[in-house]
Amino acid sequence: MKTLITNIEMVDALGRRPGKVLIEDGEIKKIYKEKESVETDFDEEINGGGHVLLPGFIDMHCHLRDPGFEYKETMETGMKAAIKGGYTSLVAMANTNPIIDNSDDLLKNRDKAVGLNLCQLIQVSALTKNFGEDDTVDFDSLRPLTNVFSNDGVSILNEDIMKKGLEASTVHDFILLTHCQPETTLVKRDVALLEKLGGHLHICHISKKDTLEAIRLAKDKGLDISCEVTPHHVFASAMDFKVNPPFRTDPDRLALIQGIKAGIIDMCGTDHAPHSEEDKKNGAPGINNFEIAFPMYYTVFSQNGISLEKLSEMLSDAPAKRLGLKTGLIKEGYPADLVLVDLNWEGKINPEDFISKSKNNPFGEELLKGKILMTIVKGNVKYDDYRSTL
Ligand code: DOR
Ligand code: ZN
Q: Sheet harboring 225-229: ordered strands across?
C-alpha cells in the first residue's frame, strides 16, 4: 500500500519545507521537494489542503487507567482520545489497579495495546513494589519489557529508594521518571544524588521557577537529566482546579515559558489524568488533556513568539530521542507517524465533546488556536476530522 500526501508544508525539529510524502508499508519511503515530480505510482492520495504536517506527538506522561479504573478511562478510550489529539506514542504511568510492578501485568497491558492497534504504548513499570518503600521491582524481568520506571502519582520521599532507583537506572540502563512534591526540594535532592551516584533522570511536570533553576544547574554540570511541562501549567496560573502539582503563580508560569525558550525544558507532555465527575467532586487531582493539549501549547507558543519547529521538537523529537525510539521526525526510513494540523483554526474545545470517557478539563471556555485534522499511525489513517473516523 502506497499513500502520497500532497499539498502540505512539513514542519519538525529539523525545520520547515513544502513537499510531498510517500508512505509505503507504514514507513516514510520518500520525501519529495515541492516541485519534484513523483515518478512512482501510488494507491491513494491524501490532499493536505495546504496545511502543516508534523511528526506524530509522543506523550512522555499520561495515565490510561487500565486496568482497574476503567470507569474513568479504558486503554481504548484513552488511545482514541490521544489519537484525536495528534498522539501516536504514549508513555503510560503505572498507577493503575493493580499497580504495574511485575512483568505479567506489564505484558498484559502491552498485549492489550497491540490488540487494539491504535497507537504505540510504552508502558511504565513502577520503581517499587506496589509503590511502597520496602522493595524495588524485579528489574531483571521488567527491563526487557520497558525502559521507563516511575512511581508517578507518588513522590519518592525515601532517599534510600531514590538512591537505589538511580543506581538501577545505570546498571539496567533505563530512565527514572519522578513525581516531585514538594517540587523544588525533591528536585534539588535528586540532582545532588544524581551528581553523586550517576543515573538517567527525568523530572515529570515541572511547575516552578526555582525548580527550573535547579535543573539548569544540573544540566550545566553535564548530568543526564531531562524534564517536561504540561499544557495547563504553561497556559494558566492560580486556578481553582485540583491537579498535582497544583497550578502555580503567574511568575512561575512565565518562568516556564522562559525555560522553554532557553532550552532548559526538554519536552511538552500532557499528564492526561482522566477522572469521573464524582471522583473530581471528591477531590481527585488530575486533568483530562489529550484532546486539547496541542491547541493549548500552540496558543501559548505562538503568543510568546516560540516557533512551531520548537514545539515539534518538544512534542515529538525530544521524547523520541530520550526514549530511544526511531520516530519523531519526518524523515525517510522513519515510521509514518504523522499529524496534519490546521494552524488557522480558532475556537473553543468543549470537554463534553471529548472521546475520552471523562471530561475533567476546565479550559472549555478558552479561545484556542490549532486543530488536529488527521492522525496517521504507521501509515494508517487513524483519525480524520472530516470523516470523524474514531
Ligand atoms: O494530577 C495528577 N493526577 N497528578 C498526578 O501525578 C497523578 C495524576 C493521576 O493519576 O490522577
Ligand atoms: Zn505526576
A: 148-150, 175-178, 201-203, 225-229, 267-268
Residue 179 Cβ < 6 Å to ligand 1: yes
Whose C-alpha lies nearest to ligand 1, atom 7? 153
How many of the other CB atoms lie within 10 Å of CB of 79?
30
CA–CA distance, 321 with 224 (Å, rounded to integer): 13
Backbone angles phi, psi at 79, to 5 degrees: -70, -35
Task: Give the residues of the chain that fall short of pLDDT 70.
Answer: 388-389
Domains within the chain, CATH numbers bracketed: 2-54+335-384 (2.30.40.10), 56-323 (3.20.20.140)
List phi, psi (to 5°) of 381.
Answer: -70, 110
- Is residue 286 lining ligand 1, measured as CB closer than 6 Å? yes
Nearest-atom number in ligand 1 for the CA of 95 is 10
Atom of ligand 1 nearest to the CA of 63: 10
The amino acid that residue 116 corresponds to is: L
Q: How far is the CA of 152 from the centre of ligand 1 (A)?
A: 8
Distances (CA, A) of 96 to 51, 126, 263, 334, 384: 38, 10, 33, 32, 30
Look up the pTM and report it: 0.98
Residue 389 confidence (pLDDT) = 67
